[in-house]
Design goal:
By secondary structure, the chain is α/β, with parallel strands linked by helices. The protein contains six helices and five strands. Helix 1 links the parallel strand 1 and strand 2. The protein is globular, with a radius of gyration of 15 Å. The two termini are 25 Å apart.
Length: 160
């Protein structure tokens, strides 16, 4: 799968770690920047090109690493067809209930459901809130989860 990466200064180190790991998982990677650490950078300069590439390259995914991930997701979501979900870290098992009322076992349900229900194609990671191991697990979960294709989810996406 083709994966586009982008970051701001706060996510620079995490993005570079993921950039090294993703090819080992069998993915093709394109780095949309930042390519050097600059504390004065502006995330739209990197996130907008990533979002355009995801928009134009059907079947591709994007991963953003940034301070909060929130503004970056808002920026990416401005483009039609881009559906960015934010990850701040795993939720405690008691915080998430599955459809049958059971509790989450690993805390990554928000990531999983963003793919299953919303067909998210960009994951925006709040690098200030997660460890590298948590980010790695979130990326693996995100890339390894398929859209359900359920009629209700397809119908909802058609209203975007």
């Amino acid at each position: 799968m083709k994966i586009y990466l982008a970051c701001d200064h706060a996510g620079f180190t995490l993005k570079n770690a993921l950039k090294d790991q993703l090819p080992l998982m069998g993915h093709e990677v394109e780095d949309c920047g930042a390519l050097e650490l600059d504390p004065d950078d502006d995330y739209p300069d990197f996130v907008t090109p990533l979002a355009r590439k995801v928009q134009e390259d059907a079947g591709s995914m994007g991963i953003i690493c940034a301070g909060s991930g929130q503004g970056e997701a808002m920026c990416a979501n401005r483009l039609t067809g881009v559906r960015a979900a934010v990850f701040y870290g795993p939720m405690p098992a008691h915080a998430a209930l599955d459809r049958e009322g059971g509790h989450s076992q690993d805390g990554y349900d928000a990531v999983r459901l963003s793919r299953r229900h919303n067909n998210a194609n960009v994951l925006s990671i709040g690098a200030r809130f997660v460890s590298p191991a948590q980010a790695d697990e979130a990326v693996r979960t995100f890339l390894g989860t398929e859209f359900s294709g359920d009629e209700r989810h397809v119908r909802r996406l058609g209203k975007f």
